[in-house]
User: Which sequence fits this backbone?
């Protein structure tokens, strides 16, 4: 979404017109769902988290600085909400519904069911390893690898200095490598 | 003497976050060390596998907008309903008390209304207490 259009929509929302929030929700929904699914491990909890985070963000819009982009600010709210959900009884990282619906890729279909089966098995091992390494490591890997954020964006979302991102990524990758080793997964 | 390559340098190298001259320095160190090269290969492989987990939910997923919109507009609906009902109740009480009917009729009607409200409140309170102690309240049916 164009920054100027985004600012205009937020201005209208701040004025109290919720209709102008819809394009923002629809624009940020796919990456936000990917982030929440990565953090919570299942689509149902991710959808709940997403809905609550959008409501929270709308209610906090009066505090939003229009000179900043909406994305990192919103992802920070979502990340905090996912963390709260995991801390409370509402959710725990559980590998459900992370099936071929999410993993569906046209190129797999062309290569046949064996390719799809291999990919699904590999994905499951990886998801299980992500489950093992814990929330702190998982969130930074999700932000970097599933979302493809740059270090400065990750720093803003996690509210940490940019210099800390590389160090946290190292520890997270190291933990993932150990988890995969323990599970007997093949590493290059 | 070549500067040591830290783990952080290695991460920035893998993620394309190093300036060109730093990138060249780390690349040279990797070329000179089989241990570093092996480490980079492992992390690169993991990056690729993690990247393959990424998905595009847009086409399969029903938007959460309807739920968000309901949450945003519902409080306004409640405020309007409660405010309107309160005005009508106050007006109704005024009309009822100012009406020329006998006192016993006013008392009887008042008792019926207060009785119904008390019964309703006790049922709601009872349900609320049951909900608080229900061990299965977080289980999705």
Assistant:
């Amino acid at each position: 979404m164009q920054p100027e259009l985004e600012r205009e929509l937020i201005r209208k929302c701040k004025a109290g017109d919720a209709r102008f929030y819809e394009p923002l929700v629809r624009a940020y929904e796919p990456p936000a769902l990917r982030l929440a699914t990565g953090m919570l491990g299942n689509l149902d909890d991710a959808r709940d988290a997403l809905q609550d985070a959008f409501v929270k963000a709308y209610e906090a819009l009066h505090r939003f600085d229009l000179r900043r982009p909406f994305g990192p600010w919103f992802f920070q709210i979502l990340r905090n909400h996912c963390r709260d959900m995991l801390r409370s009884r509402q959710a725990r990282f559980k590998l459900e519904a992370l099936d071929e619906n999410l993993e569906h890729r046209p190129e797999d279909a062309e290569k046949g069911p064996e390719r799809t089966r291999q990919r699904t098995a590999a994905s499951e091992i990886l998801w299980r390893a992500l489950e093992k390494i814990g929330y702190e490591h998982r969130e930074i890997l999700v932000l970097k690898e599933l979302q493809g954020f740059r270090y400065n964006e990750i720093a803003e979302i996690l509210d940490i200095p940019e210099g800390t991102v590389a160090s946290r990524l190292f520890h997270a990758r190291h933990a993932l490598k150990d988890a995969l080793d323990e599970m007997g997964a093949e590493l290059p | 003497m070549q500067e040591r390559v830290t783990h952080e340098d290695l991460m920035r190298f893998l993620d394309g976050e190093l300036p060109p001259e730093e990138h060249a320095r780390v690349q040279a160190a990797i070329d000179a060390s089989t241990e570093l090269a092996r480490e980079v290969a492992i992390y690169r492989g993991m990056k690729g596998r993690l990247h393959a987990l990424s998905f595009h939910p847009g086409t399969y997923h029903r938007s959460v907008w309807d739920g968000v919109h309901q949450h945003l507009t519902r409080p306004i609906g409640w405020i309007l309903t409660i405010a309107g009902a309160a005005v009508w109740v106050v007006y109704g009480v005024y009309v009822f008390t100012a009406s020329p009917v006998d006192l016993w009729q006013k008392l009887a009607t008042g008792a019926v209304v207060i009785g119904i409200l008390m019964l309703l409140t006790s049922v709601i309170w009872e349900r609320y207490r049951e909900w608080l102690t229900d061990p299965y309240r977080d289980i999705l049916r």
User: Anything to note?
Assistant: Residues 72 and 156 of chain A are 7 Å apart (CA to CA).
